[in-house]
Design brief:
The chain is 44% helix and 20% strand. It has 336 residues and is α/β, with parallel strands linked by helices. The protein has two domains: 167 residues, Bordetella uptake gene, domain 1 (D-Maltodextrin-Binding Protein, domain 2, 3-Layer(aba) Sandwich); 99 residues, Periplasmic binding protein-like II (D-Maltodextrin-Binding Protein, domain 2). Belongs to the UPF0065 (bug) family. InterPro entries: BUG, Bug_dom1. Keywords: Signal.
């Protein structure tokens, strides 16, 4: 009479043992190794928080194509523009940190937005893993050809003699071109009116049309327009002279301190990405970045190839965030 319960108990124990073995095996199963990334047949989605055809988008697509060629993996560009890069950034912040969702963005997302906006839809530190700084870039202060000045010193003198009569463009409120314009005003004691536009193309057109007199433009566009005789080059806002403009002194060399924070483009993963995986992703994209065709494209645009990996890039992000935060607090700029 007792055998039936004993039989059931024994059967239950066997089932439990099998269940425990299965759980143990699942726990003990090795996690995917970083060296195996990217896995065959698994696409990599790279979110670009800018419209297709923008400067950052173009380089992201070049890198994606080269990584696909070198590894056989499919790298898909997913454009998610809007809200000062926050829409795309939020998408990546919510993703799994497995290396298959990445963010290709610029300095704004992690070093300027946290100080410009009262509330962000993500934590710029906890929700991201810096992976690779791809490019160092600079802006160049340019003037309309009909402006009544041809040098930085003449610009400052004219602005002081004519307060409120000069306008400067930015490609959006809170952008690097806007912040550099405010630094220029703060450091020189001038009153130059800010006119924000919707994108770099609109800002450049406004400068060429004479709607504004000065603009901190991207190096490639500034050099192209100068060579075509369309603008006057006043000086780069960077920490050293540009290789494409070696004879043009930086604005800091010309006496304006603080206009020397270099811009950049880089790759981030979601927060909590394993360090070994972040290093592997950086290694793969660095190999693409350093190919002759991509390197030459970057240099021809007046930019520099970086290749800084996770640890170095993380330090760069922290440093630049502190510097931009100080500038933004001094200006008193807050965006909703």
């Amino acid at each position: 009479m007792n055998r039936k319960p004993i039989f059931h108990l024994a059967g239950w124990s066997a089932a439990a043992a099998l269940s425990m073995l299965a759980c143990t095996a699942a726990v003990a199963a090795p996690s995917p190794q970083p060296d195996a990334w990217p896995a065959s047949g698994k696409p990599i989605r790279m979110v670009v928080p800018f419209p297709a055809g923008s400067g950052s988008d173009s380089l992201a697509r070049m890198l994606a194509a080269k990584v696909s060629q070198q590894t056989g993996a499919s790298v898909i560009i997913d454009n998610k523009p809007g809200a000062g890069t926050m829409i795309g950034a939020q998408d990546v912040a919510r993703a799994k940190p497995d290396g298959y969702t990445l963010l290709y963005t610029i300095v704004v997302t992690h070093t300027q937005n946290p100080h410009l906006y009262k509330k962000l839809p993500y934590d710029p530190v906890k929700d991201f893993t810096p992976v690779l700084q791809a490019v160092r870039s600079a802006t160049v202060l340019v003037a309309n050809n009909n402006a009544p000045f041809s040098t930085t010193a003449e610009l400052i003198a004219y602005a002081k003699a004519n307060p409120g009569k000069l306008n400067y463009a930015s490609y959006s409120a809170g952008s690097t071109s806007h912040l550099n314009g405010e630094i220029l005003k703060m450091k020189t004691g001038t009153d130059i009116v800010h006119v924000p536009y919707k994108g770099t193309a609109d800002a450049s057109r406004a400068l060429l049309a004479g709607d504004v007199q000065v603009y901190f433009d991207g190096t490639a566009t500034a050099v192209e327009n100068a060579r075509a005789g369309k603008v006057k080059l006043l000086g780069p806002a960077t920490d050293r002279r540009l290789s494409v403009l070696p004879e043009l002194p930086t604005l800091e060399e010309q006496g304006i301190e603080g206009l020397n924070i270099v811009g950049w483009q880089g790759i981030f993963g979601p927060g909590d990405m394993p360090p070994a995986l972040a290093e592997r992703v950086a290694q793969v994209f660095r190999a693409a970045l350093e190919t002759p065709e991509i390197t030459q494209t970057i240099l021809s645009q007046g930019n520099e190839v970086s290749g800084a990996g996770p640890k170095e890039f993380s330090a760069i992000v922290q440093r630049d965030s502190a510097r931009w935060g100080d500038v933004i607090r001094r200006i008193g700029l807050v965006l909703e």
